[in-house]
Amino acid sequence: MLAAIEVGPEFTAGHVQSLALNPKTNELWFISSTARDQLASVARLNPQSLTPDLKIAFTTGSGRLGDELTFDRAGQAYYWTHASQLRNGNVTLYRGTISSTTGVHFEQLAQGLANNPGFFAQSIGL
Fold first, then answer.
1. According to the lineage, what is the superkingdom (predicted)?
2. Domain boundaries of the chain, sorted by first residue
3. How far apart, in Å, do the first and last CA atoms of the chain sit?
4. Less crowded by CB within 10 Å, the N or C end of the chain?
5. pLDDT digits (tens, 9 = 90+) for 80-97
6. Number of alpha helices (DSSP H) and beta strands (DSSP E) in the chain
7. Cα–Cα distances in Å, from 77 out to 3, 27, 29, 67, 121?
8. How many whole angstroms separate alpha carbon 71 and alpha carbon 41?
9. Considering only CA atoms, which of 91, 100, 109 is closest in space to residue 42?
10. Which residues, 6 or more positions from 84, have their beta carbon under 8 angstroms from its beta carbon?
11. How many other C-beta atoms can be found within 10 angstroms of the C-beta atom of residue 59?
């Protein structure tokens, strides 16, 4: 099994638990900053060098960016807010786009999830 693992150089990554493949563009993205005192940012991981080759900073307009990221088959990106931020256990989902040419744009989704899955949201998937 170890022969199949390739280790890249060390770099400061943020929350790579969010590493997600955009199936439309075949790019790997992750949330690279989630601290309250920083702009939200996502980074694209270069699969050859195993290092980020693009970082995009942006404002969310509604608190901090969550820790989870996923994409649907059409290339739409999704995240939800961190459970400790949620009032009364409500889940807040966001959908948008992440692009090296047009930047990052998200909007809150109207959805029917009334309760979060626990104290910390650890994943999101479609």
1. Bacteria
2. 15-108
3. 28
4. N
5. 875 555 555 567 788 999
6. 0, 8
7. 33, 12, 10, 13, 17
8. 16
9. 100
10. 119, 120
11. 9
